[in-house]
Design a protein that fits this description.
- This protein is an alpha/beta fold.
- The strands form 3 sheets. It has a 7-stranded mixed β-sheet, with helices on both faces.
- Strand 7 and strand 8 form a beta hairpin.
- The protein starts with a helix and ends in a 16-residue tail after the last strand.
């Protein structure tokens, strides 16, 4: 049954009608004119959060089927007594931060997101729910602190990518399939710089940065070497997985969508119930 569910999920991701609709040029032309803000009352979250009605349409009917293994593992990790801080890097609409807060209402959270219209959503949700423990950093993960051109996904809001990565992505990459056209300049940062700026090491990091995880070896070397942080991340690159292993982590595959859990070897026993059968 698990294998069948995995196959069905892959088919849904590849052939979902919304994905095909988003590729049509007329859809792109009218999207900005038609889209508008709405709020979601998700029973798993406990408070309302804001999304765009068209860009973020998959959130409206419910989130139970959105990366269920990632949701389950993240919830378990933030419920650990040792977890006090959570970083959502590539936060998009902030769903994983809101999910984490549903389990730990006083969790200290940092949301890192470069795209202006997504940042607007994050700040609106934070203000509406008085989430004073949440901080937003408007930046992309890069090789260093600075600025860089980014190709913006104006249709789904979820696949914006640094131009340097977009230019060398394969034709099958989601960003290429959506045919991103708009380019903006964004601030770039690194996880090590964020640690220095924040003044603390995060307990759990959720990372979805559209191939910018390739920059972790340069920009998160100190954080990973410290061996105090659990990472939940998406990556299509074995070099990233091997790098975690070489730096004292055990890596576990969570689903067919290339989501992984990386846990410092010293912490594996304390999160063991999430790991059975998933080792990379």
């Amino acid at each position: 049954m698990k294998q069948l569910n995995s196959i069905l999920e892959q088919v849904r991701q590849k052939y979902h009608p919304l994905r095909e609709l988003r590729r049509l040029l007329p859809w792109h032309r009218w999207f900005g004119c038609l889209d508008f803000l709405v709020f979601v009352n998700d029973r798993h979250i406990g408070f309302r959060y804001f999304v765009y009605a068209l860009k973020n349409l998959p959130y409206l009917p419910g989130t139970e089927r959105m990366e269920p293994a990632v949701q389950r593992v993240l919830t378990h990790c933030v419920k650990r007594p040792q977890t006090r801080t959570f970083w959502d890097v590539g936060a998009n609409v902030g769903f994983y931060t809101w999910l984490a807060l549903a389990s730990r209402p006083h969790l200290r959270c940092l949301l890192v997101e470069p795209v202006p219209f997504n940042v607007k959503l994050l700040r609106k949700t934070i203000e509406a729910n008085s989430l004073s423990q949440c901080q937003v950093v408007q930046a992309a993960i890069g090789k260093s602190v600075g600025s860089e051109a980014m190709m913006v996904d104006e249709v789904s809001g979820a696949t914006s990518q640094l131009k340097s990565l977009y230019d060398r992505s394969s034709p099958g990459a989601m960003a290429k399939i959506y045919g991103l056209k708009k380019q903006i300049d964004v601030a770039t940062t690194t996880l090590d710089w964020l640690v220095e700026d924040a003044g603390y090491v995060p307990d759990v990091v959720k990372l979805d940065v559209e191939h910018a995880e390739l920059f972790l070896q340069e920009g998160a070397a100190a954080l990973v070497a410290g061996g105090r942080t659990i990472f939940i991340f998406e990556s299509h690159f074995d070099t990233v997985l091997d790098w975690f292993v070489e730096n004292g982590y055990e890596v576990y595959k969570l689903d067919a969508l290339k989501n992984y859990l990386a846990v410092p070897v010293s912490m594996v026993d304390s999160v063991l119930e999430t790991l059975a059968g998933h080792r990379y």
